[in-house]
Amino acid sequence: MKSKRLVFRPEAESDLVGLYRYIAEASGSMDVAFRFTERLRATCFTLADFSGRGTPRDDIKNGLRIITHERRTMIACFIKGDSVVINNIFHGGRDWEAALLGNNDPAPEK
Questions:
Q1: What is the DSSP string of 4-70?
Q2: Which of these, 11, 20, 14, 5, lies nearest to 87 by C-alpha position?
Q3: How far is Cα 54 from Cα 37, in angstroms, rounded to an integer?
Q4: Residue 23 lies in a domain
Q5: Is residue 109 domain-resident?
Q6: pLDDT of residue 109 exceeding 70
Q7: What CATH number is associated with residue 75?
């Protein structure tokens, strides 16, 4: 099976940067934040080879899949042709369902 191309939407990239900043501030360590976000990115990159992972959530958005990372972080993605599109990354107590329901443009068309 051929690997899919992984695409991070600008919103997902912003989520990742925000999460890094939050962890760095909360932990007092940029190293802790870096290690966590690198593990998170590695989880995202596994989707290129295993795009069927996660829980389908068509009840929220058609084609949405949710992957949990280390119990408290949710990766929201869509399969679009030969690409896996990382739509958003949610951490902790964020209401990711409401955030996705309010987003009318879930992923760019191929």
A1: PEEEE-HHHHHHHHHHHHHHHHHHT-HHHHHHHHHHHHHHHHHTTT-TT-SEE-TTTSTTEEEEEET
A2: 11
A3: 19
A4: yes
A5: no
A6: no
A7: 3.30.2310.20
pLDDT of residue 2: 83
For the chain, the domain total comes to 1
The tokens of 105 are what?
């443009």
Using 50, 70 and 90 to split pLDDT, how confident is the model at 95? low
Whether residue 77 lies inside any domain: the answer is yes
Residues 11-39, mean pLDDT to the nearest whole number: 96
pLDDT over 50 at 106, yes or no: no
The answer to whether position 107 is within a domain reads no
Predicted pLDDT at 102: 76
Are 26 and 92 a contacting pair, CB within 8 Å?
A: no
Report the DSSP pairing between strands 83-91 and 5-8.
parallel
* 104 DSSP assignment: S
* Residue-number span of the structural domain to which 87 is assigned: 5-101
